[in-house]
Amino acid sequence: MPDRSSAATPPKTPLERYRALRQSGEIEADPAQELAVEKLQMLHHRLAQYDPSPNQNYGQGWRQFLFGRSQKEPAPEGLYIYGDVGRGKSMLMDLFFDGAPIEKKRRVHFHEFMGEVHARINAFRKAPAKDRKGDDPLPPIAADIAEATWLLCFDEFEVKDIADAMILGRLFARLFELGVVVVSTSNRAPDELYKGGLNRQLFLPFIEALKQRLDILCLEGLLDYRLARMHGMPTYFTPLDEAASAELDDAFERLTDQKKGEVAELTVKARKLVVPQQAKGVARFSFDELCATALGAHDYLALGQHFHTVILSGIPALGPEKRNEARRFVILIDVLYDNGVKLVASAETEVEQIYPAGDGGFEFQRTVSRLMEMQSEDYFDAPHRAVVDL
User: How far apart are the first and last CA of the chain?
Assistant: First the structure.
């Protein structure tokens, strides 16, 4: 997700903006969200009085910045909001970040942030010794971050890389020491981060520090707010024309608040599965990308575990000459159905006519039945049943 810069005119507080959404009917009452908004509102007010600038009497430079800050007022406690996809975490972050009353703030996807940190570490190590600030890259990197950013908001906090895990504790200890306030959303509770990772015991102190420095809030809710936007709307479009394509575009934007997603890769049995577009738990493919290439059940299972919705374009009429594509399509639908994954699709024909005859035509009738059920409101309102393991 791209960074968001400070607005020229400060918007309303998180609570005021949330109440406006309630009054307009854009969102429904949700006790868990209301609690989160109250906590964000308190942080909003604390940030309005918070100035982590180093005292000029301490001089200039990162060492003075590092040690001089300790005599300033304590930094406000940050917030870590976690919960399943579609519970409104990103919406709450929007309400808070856009109006946060602090000069230097940044909102960034956590993986993008860590990529920048690794790039800085590499640049530090390649620099001549005389140009370095010591032998350890993390203190000057943390000082540079803290000087530019007083409020750091992370989307989708997730740790799955051992290289990230090994530096997070030291990096964030410095950032907290320098007075940086952190607010983050995540699909995982702190104790679930890097679960099963190599040398995880070395990562546990960071988890404890996170729980001490941030208020941890589970956003428990019964309704998936993004999927609720599709309630009562058609999810299967035929024939394959510009109107159908426009409907898929609209569905993707409704579900993700983005017109276009980003490319991603999933690791499936030591090889890469490319996801051409994805955002906020929604993946978008063409039929050929999933069913006309050498993919199988393990690939589709990975999709079912990582995404709550798949948008699939260009399902053709299938005959005996496309028995392999039909076989893969059957497996794909079975996996999506078994995992409670939602499907929004465009096709050349109505469901009953996708594969009316040929090898496996009789077995395809189960796929027809499942495709029909996957268009129902009951199926679309049911939860995603997969357990995500990134």
Answer: 19
